[in-house]
Task: structure prediction
Amino acid sequence: MPLGNPKDFWTGVIYIAFGSGALIIARDYGFGTARKMGPAFFPAILSIILIVIGIISLARSLIRPGTPVGRFTFKGLLLVTGATLLFGLIVRGAGLIVAMPVLVIVSGYASRRFRWPAAIALALLLTGFCILIFLKGLGIPLPVFGPWFGG
Amino acid sequence: MELLTNLGLGFATAITPANLFYCFVGVFLGTLIGVLPGLGPTATIAMLLPVTFTLPPVSALIMLAGIYYGSQYGGSTTSILINVPGEASSVVTTLDGYQMARQGRAGVALTAAAIGSFFAGTVATVLLALFAPPLAEVALRFGPADYFSLMVLGLLASVVLAQGSLLHAVGMVVLGLLLGLVGTDINSGVQRFSFGIPDLADGIGFVVVAMGMFGLAEIIRNLEREEDGTAEVTKITSLLPTREDWKRMVAPILRGTAIGSALGILPGSGSILGAFAAYSIEKKVSKHGAEFGTGAIEGVAAPESANNAGAQTSFIPMLTLGIPSNPVMALMVGAMIIQGIQPGPSVITEQPALFWGIIASMWIGNLFLIVLNLPLIGMWVRIIMIPYHILFPAILVFCGIGVFSLKNTEFDIYLMAVFGLLGYLFTKLDCEPAPMLLAFILGPMMEEYLRRALLLSRGDPLVFITRPISATLLGLALLAIIVSALPALYRKREEVFREE
Result:
C-alpha cells in the first residue's frame, strides 16, 4: 500500500509512541478516583487522547494523499544540536574559553558561508563579550578556565 | 467628579521626580529583561524585592509594575527579530512578526508592536481606573470548573492559529499538556516522567522549550533554506509602516485590547491566554486572515495589544481584592506586605494615594516605553542585518548561556538541544509548535482546576455543564471546533459530489 501522506503517517507514529510511553509510565503513579484524582489521572487521560489522535492521523495517511516531508538538512541538524550538546558537556570542565569557541565554530561550520578567519574572530569576540557581561556583569558561575585546563 | 479628584491625586503622586525616576528605571529594566531571553519579570522582581524595602511603598510598586508591563514590550523584540519569544506572552508574535522580519519588514513589525502595546496599555489603565472594583467581582464568580473550561476553550481556540493540519495541532496541544506535567506533582509529591533525573524534579523550564523549539529549530530551518538556495537576503524595505499598514493595524489593536483586558482580569495566565485568543480571533475575523502566518501585520498588532492590556488589567484583582492573578502579582503582594500594607479591598479607601498613584504611573510608564522603544527600533533592525552565518552562532551562544543561567545546570542545555531537534522535526511534519507552548504552560494549572472542580462536585463530571459559566465556555469551545472543521467538511462533500 503506497504511503499516501508521509506527514500524517509519521506524526501519527510519533503521537502513538509518546502517548503509549506516557501511559505505560503513568500506570505506576496511582490513578485515584474522579473525586480524588491521583497523579496518574490527568496524564492517563491525556495519553489516551494522544494515542487516539495518532491513530486517526495514521489512518488518514493511508487514505488521503499529501505532500512529502521534504528534505532534511542533516548537516545543519547534527551540527547545531551537536554543538549545543557539546557545549553543555564541556563548559564546566573546560571553561568558557574553550567551550564557547567550540560552540561557535562547530555550529558555524554548518553554514555554507563558513570561513575559518571570520569564525575564529567571531569566537574570540563573543567569548570576550560573554565573559564580560555574563561572568563579571551578572556573576554566572561558569569558569573561564575549567579544571581540565588548570582552572 | 470623584474620579477626577482621584486621578488628580494619582498624577500628583506619580509625577514627583522620585517616582518618575523609579517609573523610568522600572520600564527600562523591564524592556531590557523582556529582550533578554531567559531572564523574566518574575525572576527580576524577586531579585529586586529586598531593594524595595528601603523605598517608600508607592515608589516601590511603581517601579515593580514598570518592570512587569515593560517586559511585555521587550518580549516582542526577540520574537520578531530571531523567532525566540522573550516572554511566554510573546510566543504568538513569532508567528507573523518573524515572517515580517524575514521579508525585510522588521521595523514595521516592531513599530506595530510598540503602537499596539501603547494603545492597549493606556486603555487598560483607564479601565483600571474606572472599573476596578466591578471587574474584580466578575473574576470572583469564576470557580475551578469555569477556569478549566476557559483553558479548554483557550487551547482549542489556539489550534485555529495553526498553519498546518488542525488534527496535528490538537495533538501538539495534548503533547504540550503532558510535557507540562513533567516534574513533581504538588498534590501527591510523586515525581512524574522525570526518569529519576534530579534536574527534572521541578519540571521542564519554559525558556528551555521556547529557545529549543523556536530558536534552535529556526536556525536549523534557515540552514536548510541556505542549502536549498531559498534563503532570502534580508533587505530592509522600510522602518515605518505604510499608510496601508496603519489602516490595517487599527481594528486588530482595538480587538486585541478588548480581549486582552477581559482575559487579563482572570487569575491564571491572563496575559498569555489573551495574546493567543486575540491572534486566533483576529485570524478568523480579519479580511486578511489567509495571510496569517506569512507576515500579516494584524498578527503582530492584535496579540501585542492583548498582552499589554492583560498585563495592566491583571493588577485589578490584586489591587482591589488582594488576590494575585499570576506569580508577578503574588510578588507585588509580597512587596506590599513588606511595606506593612495589607492588600485587600480596603487599600483603595485607606491608601488612595498608593492606589491611584500606581494607576497614574502606569500611563506615564507606557509613555516612557513608547519614547524608549520607537527610536531603538532602528538599532534592533541593524542587528539582523548582520550576515546570518555570523549571527546564528551568536544566537546559539546567548541561548546556551541564557538557558544555563536559569538553574545553573548543563542539563537544561541538553534539553534545549533535544527540543531544537523536536521543533525542527515537528515543523517538517506540519505540527505547529505554538499551541504546544500554550498547553505546556497551562497543563499544570488545568490539572489543578480539574482536581478542585471534581473535588467540589464530589467526583461528578457533569459539573462542567451544570455551572453556567463553564457550560457557556465549553459551548464556545464546541462552536470553535465546528467552525474550524466546517470548511474541511464542505470540501469533502464537494469532492464526493464531483466524483458522482
In short: Strands of chain B lie at 183-184, 191-192. Chain B has 21 helices and two strands.
